[in-house]
Design brief:
330 residues; alpha/beta; Ubiquitin-like (UB roll); Rossmann fold; six-stranded antiparallel beta sheet; 7 helices; 19 strands; 32% strand; globular; binds FE2/S2 (inorganic) cluster
Length: 330
């Protein structure tokens, strides 16, 4: 018998063992979320009535005081009965697509940069998502799920393009770099995350991506240019060496077709990119004022922090800065 979860006007069923976040997203009720791993705190919500099992809710994310005050991490907590929550804070541009399980087939696997592969999956049915969001892929033959941003725009709803960097000793890396096969069937759940492109805007955009943090930014750039072909868009890709760059030809070709689009490669440990050094320095050199810009950042924790500072130094409004942190998982 499913339990009943209530948050504001949202009333959803929740199978025993399922997290609060999954129950809401699977029923098409938006709830803020980002990491789905108990590390970011985005999904924190207050319980008004009912009991839950907190499972893996780390103290760094949910403090003892917050626990005592009745808060839970929706991505970790599972209900023990019916539960009533405070109305969740909503985010203007959050994706409202229903979280779903789909089965996909590996259509193509390509080496695109040092220790980096592009994996194209074709889903059996379309999966609706917003540019910027990610999916969880179950590593075949295991119960282990790994998160990958989608690099293709939502208009290609049956295609799931993943950019995957090898993590030595990792279970998913072992699959993707050693034994993946075209035609293999893969379970995918998504979409997740509130790092989403707002398709209604027309103003200038700056995007800063580190390593495979380029993936969701490519989805955003492609959708943005398809909606407003002459939009001013600056895409900075930061890597350590030239061998880490990828999709250069594709992005250069987009530049020739869209005069408002600029793609800037930033290589920090050698020369050979458009800019020798960090993306943040390149952005600060290029842009005197980012007051009118919307900013998208995807990369490691340190990369995101430095990028937010650079955007703020150029007076970008904090409410127009969107960010996605990723921690490499093998
Ligand atoms: Fe729940 Fe990040 S802690 S989404």
């Amino acid at each position: 018998m499913p339990y009943t979860l209530t948050a504001g006007t949202g009333v959803v069923p929740c199978e025993p063992g399922r997290t609060v976040l999954e129950a809401f997203l699977r029923n098409g009720n938006w709830m803020p979320n980002s990491c789905n791993q108990g590390t970011c705190g985005t999904c924190k919500i207050k319980v008004l009535d009912g009991e839950l099992d907190h499972r893996n809710s780390p103290e760094e994310t949910l403090t003892a005081d917050e626990l005592a005050a009745g808060f839970v991490l929706a991505c970790q907590a599972t209900p023990r009965g019916d539960v009533v929550f405070e109305t969740p804070a909503t985010e203007e541009s959050a994706g409202t697509h229903v979280l779903r399980d789909v089965v996909a087939t590996v259509a193509e696997v390509r080496d695109i940069a040092a220790d980096t592969r592009k994996v194209l999956l074709t889903a059996d049915e379309p999966l609706e998502f917003s540019a910027g969001q990610y999916v969880e892929v179950t590593v075949p033959g295991t119960e282990i799920r790994r998160q990958y941003s989608l690099a293709n725009p939502p208009s290609e709803a049956k295609q799931l393009e993943l950019h995957i960097r090898r993590q030595p000793g990792g279970v998913a890396s072992e699959w993707v770099f050693e034994r993946i096969e075209v035609g293999e069937r893969v379970a995918v759940t998504g979409p997740y995350g509130d790092f989403t492109f707002d398709p209604d805007g027309t103003g200038p955009i700056a995007l800063l991506g580190g390593g495979t943090g380029l993936a969701p930014l490519e989805a955003i750039v492609r959708q943005a240019l398809s909606l407003v072909p002459d939009r001013q868009i600056l895409l900075y890709h930061g890597v350590r060496t030239c061998a880490d760059l990828y999709d250069v030809d594709f992005l250069r070709e987009l530049e020739t077709r869209h005069p408002g689009f600029r793609y800037i490669t930033c290589v920090s440990r050698e020369s050979g990119g458009d800019h020798e050094g960090y993306v943040t320095d390149a952005f600060l050199e290029d842009v005197a004022s980012a007051k009118e810009f919307t900013g998208y950042i995807c990369g490691s924790e340190a990369f995101v922090e430095a990028s937010v500072k650079a955007f703020k130094r150029r007076r970008m409004s904090p409410r127009r800065i969107r960010r996605e942190r990723f921690t490499p998982a093998g």
